[in-house]
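hey so i finaly got around to running the thing on Transcriptional regulator from Streptomyces fructofermentans. pasting the sequence first so u can double check i didnt mess up the copy paste, my clipboard has been acting weird all day
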Amino acid sequence: MLPLLEPESDVAACCPPLDERPLSAREAESAARMFKALGDPVRLRLFSLVASHAGGEACVCDISDVGVSQPTVSHHLKKLKEAGLLSSERRGTWVYYRVEPSVLAAMGALLAGAAKTV
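ok and heres what it spat out for the 3d tokens, dont ask me to read them lol
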């Protein structure tokens, strides 16, 4: 198991469930940054590829076939990292990406209450 890197933002700790209380301005900014990053279909696909990859991490060489050029893939991965959704580690010539451990739980918690009321 690889050591976890520190998240690059406070996305994971951002917000309570939507039905718990109104979000503060800071919480809303953090959640919006996360959802904005995932609002692009290529970024959402890349995030999904990393999240579902065996072992919880994926080499850029394994996830780059998403119908756009390699520089565009790199741009989208950078945006996901800036939003705090992914972390990366260089090993030799390859970069390995993994979903920040608490991101999926935080996203689920934020939306869980809203799903109960639908």
